[in-house]
Amino acid sequence: MKLDITQALIGADKVNALRGKVEEAQQALEQGTCPGNDYVGWLHLPTGITPEFIQEIQQTADTLRKECDTVVVAGIGGSYLGARAVIEALQNSFQWLVNKGENPNVLFAGNNIGEDYLYELTAYLKDKKFGVINISKSGTTTETALAFRLLKKQCEEQRGKDMARKVIVAITDAKRGAARTCADKEGYKSFIIPDNVGGRFSVLTPVGLLPIAIAGFDIAALVKGAQDMERQTAVGVPFEENPAAQYAAVRNALYQEGKKIEIIANYQPKLHYIGEWWKQLYGESEGKDHKGIFTAAVDLTTDLHSMGQWIQDGERSIFETVISVAKPEHTLFFPSDEENLDGLNFLAGKRVDEVNKMAELGTKLAHVDGGVPNLRIELERLDEYNLGQLIYFFEKGCGISGLLLEVNPFNQPGVEAYKKNMFALLGKPGYEAETEAIRKRLS
Ligand code: PA5
């Protein structure tokens, strides 16, 4: 994985001016003296993962792979985005249609409260040999609990209680929460989300690793990529050679210059959910105390035909971070056409990826000309190892960046506001005072 900041449109002096603060942030993370220091368990998580632990996860994955044609992951936010991002980046774009049964289809629920979504999902599952992974650190998240209740009941009815016990797995807190109580009572296989790892930093725990292994991908290689990036971004690596330190410094320098929006851009549709995962990681970590870069994601070239105008020509408060994949897995050449009705014979014999790369370069030049700073991350290929590197790079960059911004990057107090109102509106016991306050406000 390479980071190129040469087109960041910010003087090296401004980036280097943050070197001292970056080093302080790294020390604070390392020594556990930063705000949110009880949630820095992700810092050395990759190098702490043992082969035995990977084997334990793989064994559970193998049980579900044997017994299920479909596995539904119930989780929201940090409890599903990482797994979905890696699975969608690695699997065939038409997985559902081409799957000949070698891997279970991994579906996601519990990340919305759409009645149609849940109805259609449960209808789809009616003739499926399905299993469920219930992922919730708190064990009390409404979206996830609601979906799990439906899925558990359906799984027990369709597959019988004994088989349901075999194919339902819980990933939750060691002791607290309804998901833990249920798992212990029913005797489900369960994994623990470490206390000191917050949801959006948990993809390299069983939260991400189990669904990824069930989908048939090599979690040892993913972890190896993360381990190598942990070393490349460690305290003591010079500022100029540490990609996470550079990324954190550049984006904060840009923010100080009025660049309030960062778009993550990909040129491979398979990376769509990497963008969604990144959006949460940075948005939820930094959007605090009325500060923080607004994170948005675009799929290119698709969104050049929707957001391209704004990016090129709208308010100059934006910068972009492009994720580019050097070598696609497959090779496809444009054919020549005798009639050339579409006028595309000038592309004949070229790889589709060459056209994509020229679109990327052309866009970068245009954006830079238009005053949009461009940061570029290049992955050699889309595989487990490179994604492991990318994940840890972004996590480390996020920890440093949040501390540069002087917020606690590891909490999310703002997320509670909607929950309180929703519970009050739904009449949850214990919320009577809030219900009354809302009733008055709405009358
Ligand atoms: O990053 C976070 O902490 C959040 O996004 C959580 O992952 C999300 O709210 C889900 O919470 P839980 O795992 O407790 O159900």
Please provide a written account of the structure.
Helices cover 49% and strands 14% of the residues. The protein is α/β, with parallel strands linked by helices and 443 residues long. The protein has 2 domains: 2-33 and 226-410, Glucose-6-phosphate isomerase like protein, domain 1 (Rossmann fold); 45-217, 3-Layer(aba) Sandwich (Rossmann fold), CATH 3.40.50. The protein has a 5-stranded mixed β-sheet, sandwiched between helices. Strands 3-2-4-5-6 form a 5-stranded parallel β-sheet, with helices on both faces. The chain starts with a strand and ends with a helix. Bound molecules: 5-phosphoarabinonic acid. 5-phosphoarabinonic acid binds at residues 76-79, 136-138, 141, 144, 198-200, 284, 412.
